[in-house]
Amino acid sequence: MKIYCDENIESAIVDGLRRRGIEVLSVRDTGDLGKSDKYHLKRASELEAVILTHDVDFLRMAQQLRHEREGHKGILYAHPLDLSVGECIRRVELVTQVLTEEELENTIEFL
Question: What is the reported pLDDT for 68?
């Protein structure tokens, strides 16, 4: 499973996921800093990646896509005040171990 981290995800989380052998791309890697949330959700799907974010706007967009009958590869939502960097890394790692890409498609997983 590939994870696409939006610009709200700290580089420490990206680095920690990589150290655990998880395939991770960040907006810093792709040169997409400053792009819209809608762009990032589409870009993640193009890359066949689940998006990892702290941004609640993605939750609204997912609902809108559902109404428009469009899809996405999945959203992992980590509230920035509820999880430490280490806990976020551990929970993302767990998701990659127990869920498949197909199970995450068009869903939101709250970390």
Answer: 59
Indicate which CATH number applies to the domain containing 12: 3.40.50
Longest dimension (CA), the chain: 38
Question: Which single residue is written with the structure tokens 């976020």?
Answer: 88
Number of domains in the chain: 1
**Residue 70 belongs to what domain range?**
2-110
The pair phi, psi for residue 7, each rounded to 5°, is: -70, -10
Q: Could you tell me where the DSSP H helices lie in the chain? A: 11-19, 27-30, 37-46, 57-67, 85-98, 101-104
CB 51 within 8 A of CB 40: yes
Model confidence pTM above 0.70: yes
What is the Cβ-side half-sphere exposure of residue 102, based on CA atoms within 13 angstroms? 0
